[in-house]
């Protein structure tokens, strides 16, 4: 995939924290010129370090024609970074006043036809898009961390976003190798983070109740449903569990006990005790492992899985 295929040549990345730097690496690997900006004193150094660390993995995935780390330019001044951009990926801090300021400044410095996609994980687009004179081109382009590896992007419009902007964003993200999904209604946490939050709540609850250790819960997901969820997701996996009757059969026969489980799910808050249990459990789980080696193996297996999924045309 080359930048030419998208109608976009130059991308501005505003905010170079963990998400922004990873986005920059992804866009560079897809053959774009990237102009990045962040007001932090050491932002350029951290950005280039992230790109350097990510590049060997991106080479294994496959670089686009013309892809180069040398096509990254850092601009301390936001107006200089977004000038001439064909697409803007905003990754500022999760604070509403900061988002509103950034969107207003980005909007003032770009052409009328350029989309502004925010990576915000929690703030609704409708809460800050009206800071732009052209709010119809402001939308959510929320990645799953790290963006240079994980394909998912959640695309959501605010109350003022145009359908044409949503369509353009969906086509752009698909063209640069992402798996975009269009979320039809704004909600806190969007979709993927809400699903994660539901699982995390029960995971923390089970540890707090002494039902299982942190290591046991990690194993329960990593060696059980997590393997299937990575291939089909919750609904298709449930459908396959129903045999010839599919998901309708499962609901008819397992619906009542499933509802009983829902009513029995735990609820808790992050007290100091809950936090301490999780920290101690993770420390125990890592005692016999090398964290750098574990991360390398995670990425190796993830790349192999992504390659296999790319060849499986019947998987979603």
TrEMBL record:
Residues 189-257 form the 3-hydroxyacyl-CoA dehydrogenase C-terminal domain. PANTHER family: 3-HYDROXYACYL-COA DEHYDROGENASE FAMILY PROTEIN, 3-HYDROXYBUTYRYL-COA DEHYDROGENASE. Residues 11-184 form the 3-hydroxyacyl-CoA dehydrogenase NAD binding domain. Gene3D superfamilies: N-(1-d-carboxylethyl)-l-norvaline Dehydrogenase, domain 2, NAD(P)-binding Rossmann-like Domain. The gene is lcdH. The keyword Transferase does not apply. Keywords: Oxidoreductase. Its EC number is 1.1.1.108. It is an enzyme of class 1 (oxidoreductase). Pfam families: 3HCDH, 3HCDH_N. This is L-carnitine dehydrogenase. The keyword Oxidoreductase applies.
């Amino acid at each position: 995939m080359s930048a030419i295929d998208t109608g976009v040549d130059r991308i501005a990345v505003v905010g170079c924290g963990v998400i922004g730097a990873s986005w920059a690496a992804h866009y560079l690997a897809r053959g774009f010129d990237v102009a990045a900006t962040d007001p932090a004193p050491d932002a350029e150094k951290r950005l280039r370090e992230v790109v350097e660390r990510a590049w060997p993995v991106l080479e294994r995935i496959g670089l686009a024609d013309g892809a180069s780390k040398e096509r990254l330019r850092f601009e301390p001044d936001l107006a200089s970074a977004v000038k001439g951009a064909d697409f803007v990926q905003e990754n500022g801090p999760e604070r509403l006043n900061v988002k509103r300021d950034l969107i207003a400044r980005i909007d003032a410095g770009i052409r009328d036809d350029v989309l502004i996609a925010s990576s915000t994980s929690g703030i609704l687009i409708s809460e800050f898009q009206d800071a732009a004179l052209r709010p119809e081109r402001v939308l959510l382009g929320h990645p799953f961390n790290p963006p240079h590896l994980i394909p998912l992007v959640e695309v959501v419009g605010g109350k003022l976003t145009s359908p044409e902007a949503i369509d353009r964003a969906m086509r752009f993200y698909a063209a640069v190798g992402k798996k975009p999904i269009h979320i039809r209604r704004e909600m806190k946490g969007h979709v993927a983070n809400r699903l994660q939050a539901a699982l995390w709540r029960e995971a923390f609850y089970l540890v707090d109740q002494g039902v299982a250790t942190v290591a046991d819960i990690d194993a329960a997901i990593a060696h059980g449903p997590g393997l299937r969820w990575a291939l089909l997701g919750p609904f298709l996996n449930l459908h396959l569990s129903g045999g010839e009757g599919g998901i309708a059969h499962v609901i008819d026969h397992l619906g009542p006990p499933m509802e009983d489980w829902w009513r029995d799910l735990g609820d808790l808050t992050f007290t100091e005790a809950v936090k301490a249990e999780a920290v101690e459990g993770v420390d125990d789980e890592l005692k016999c492992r090398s964290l750098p080696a574990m991360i390398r193996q995670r990425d190796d297996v993830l790349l192999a899985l992504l390659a296999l999924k790319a060849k499986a045309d019947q998987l979603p």
